């Protein structure tokens, strides 16, 4: 169907005067009848390239943090640890393109592009540093942080960033040294999400 449409389009424009969209000047089509088959083949290749590009650029994930141990309501804490520690969001809701690794907690960019990431974190602790950091490779690019005092023991926060990545770059959520966060075995309150906006 596409093939016939392309041939009709080329035939209709053959030898006609058209206005350039860039300059506004009239230009003559220089396509001859003998060049028609090669032009059709060129257009078919471009259509196939566009199809491949669309299919190969589907990247999106959403993952949830689950506690290592839990109370009767399903809540459990992560940390504090003596060193910065990757948080592995091991309950996957979506992983189109399989770029998120549930074993390491790392997203690895499958193509060069501009990506969007969001993290949401929750805590239910007193007198502790709470929050998480987002890392691109070994560089911290965002931090959610608060010192939780005695009077306010429950907090939730989110942050979003846009990152330009090259193929193979990794993005992780890290619990900084000495920090604590809380997750739930049944509720999706701590999440790590990302998707490709466009390729570059």
Automatic annotation (TrEMBL):
Q: Does the keyword Glycosyltransferase apply?
A: no
Which keywords accompany this UniProt record? Coiled coil, Secreted, Signal
- Give yes or no: UniProt keyword Signal: yes
Q: Which GO terms describe its cellular component?
A: extracellular region
Q: List the residue ranges forming a coiled coil, or say none.
A: 33-60
Q: Which InterPro entries match?
A: C1q_dom (IPR001073), Cerebellin_Synaptic_Org (IPR050822), Tumour_necrosis_fac-like_dom (IPR008983)
Q: Where is the signal peptide?
A: 1-15
Per UniProt, residues of the C1q domain are 54-200
Tell me, what's a Pfam family for it?
C1q
Principal localisation: secreted
Where found, per UniProt? Secreted
Q: Per its record, how is this protein called by name?
A: C1q domain-containing protein
The organism encoding this protein is Umbra pygmaea (Eastern mudminnow)
């Amino acid at each position: 169907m596409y093939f016939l449409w392309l041939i009709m389009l080329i035939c209709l424009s053959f030898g006609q005067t058209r206005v350039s969209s860039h300059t506004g000047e009239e230009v003559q089509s220089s396509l001859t009848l003998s060049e028609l088959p090669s032009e059709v083949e060129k257009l078919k290749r471009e259509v196939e390239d566009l199809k491949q590009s669309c299919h190969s650029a589907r990247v999106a994930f959403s993952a949830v943090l689950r506690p290592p141990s839990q109370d009767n309501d399903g809540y459990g804490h992560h940390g504090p640890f003596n060193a910065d520690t990757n948080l592995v969001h091991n309950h996957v809701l979506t992983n189109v393109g399989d770029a998120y690794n549930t074993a390491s907690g790392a997203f690895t960019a499958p193509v060069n592009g501009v990506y969007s990431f969001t993290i949401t974190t929750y805590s239910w602790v007193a007198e502790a540093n709470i929050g998480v950091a987002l890392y691109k490779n070994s560089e911290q690019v965002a931090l959610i942080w608060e010192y939780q005092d005695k009077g306010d023991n429950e907090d939730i926060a989110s942050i979003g960033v846009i990152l330009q990545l090259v193929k193979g770059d990794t993005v992780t959520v890290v619990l900084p040294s000495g920090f604590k966060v809380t997750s739930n075995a049944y509720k999706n309150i701590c999440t790590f999400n990302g998707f490709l906006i466009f390729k570059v």
